[in-house]
Amino acid sequence: MVSFNNLYNNANMVEVASKGPVKVFEHQRDLSVESSNAINAYFASKMNLRKRQVLIELNGNSFCTQAGAMQWIAGNVTMGSGIKGVGDFLGKAFASAVTKESTAKPEYSGNGLVMLEPTYKHILLEDIGEWGSIVLDDGLFLACDASLTKKVVSRSNFSSAALGKEGLFNLSLSGNGVAVLESPVARDELVEINLQNDEVKIDGNMAIAWSASLQFTVEMSSKSILGSAVSGEGLVNVYRGTGRILVALT
Predict the structure, then answer these.
(1) Which residues are paired to 27 by β-bridges?
(2) For the chain, the helix, strand and coil percentages under 3-state DSSP, each to the nearest 5
């Protein structure tokens, strides 16, 4: 039996979000600073630059994480590589090369706790069942329910990658379960756009995640080259169809 003190009852480490078996804790202050960096640490905390940690509570279920993300595990928890044979390894090696994600995503199963390493990025908890399927921007994946299907999806055309300043391939998650994402911006600085057989044009790669059902291309902001030049926008990212998009405001 494992018991804890100063985890759930830690006054400085506050639970700020939860979904399913996942909890997100935020360190309100860095209590282990030295006099040389105390001022910087104080103002960093005031500007919402804080350490955040993800705690996964396993109760007979399984979760996979980005390689190297685990800080500690407690209880009757086993860890596997998440790779099922040579063919699976080769497929994941290709996925790793084209999506910039780790080849092996460790899988934790059993009954107990898995605490992930602290990060200064913002943590998003997404119910993939509500999305149906989601496509993630590079570097967004941190962890997910092991039952979710992970696959590589390609852009609808080469121009969307070359001109949209995006990769040609992205990681897609589908199924029912929770995904944990590391976002460069806070949830309050994300706008969720819902499309019903419509389109959205975005100047720059501000979309961090979108429904796999949407078609993504890069086009001129106007139907004519002159119109695009006059508007000053040039090329824009275009999402068409029915689905959702998470767009950063900053």
Answers:
(1) 13
(2) 15, 50, 35
Displacement of CA 178 from its chain's centroid (Å): 11
- What stretch of H or E contains 229? helix 225-231
**What are the backbone angles phi and psi of residue 88, rounded to the nearest 5°?**
-65, -40
Of 86 and 15, which is predicted with more confidence? 15
Rounded to an integer, what distance in angstroms lies between the CA atom of residue 52 and that of residue 38? 19
Dihedral (Cα; 82, 85, 86, 87), 10-degree rounding = -90
pLDDT in tens, 121-136: 999 999 999 999 999 9
3-state secondary structure 94-141: HHHHHHCCCCCCCEEEEEEEEEECCECCEEEEEEHHHHCEEEECCCCE
Quickly state the pLDDT bin for 222 (edges 50, 70, 90): low
Distance of CA 37 to the CA centre of its chain: 30
Q: Which helix (H) or strand (E) holds 226?
A: helix 225-231
Q: What is the pTM of this model?
A: 0.83
Residue 79's alpha-carbon distances to 66, 93, 194, in angstroms, are: 13, 20, 38
Q: Give the tens place of pLDDT for each residue, 28-73.
A: 998 898 989 989 988 988 898 999 999 999 999 999 999 999 999 9
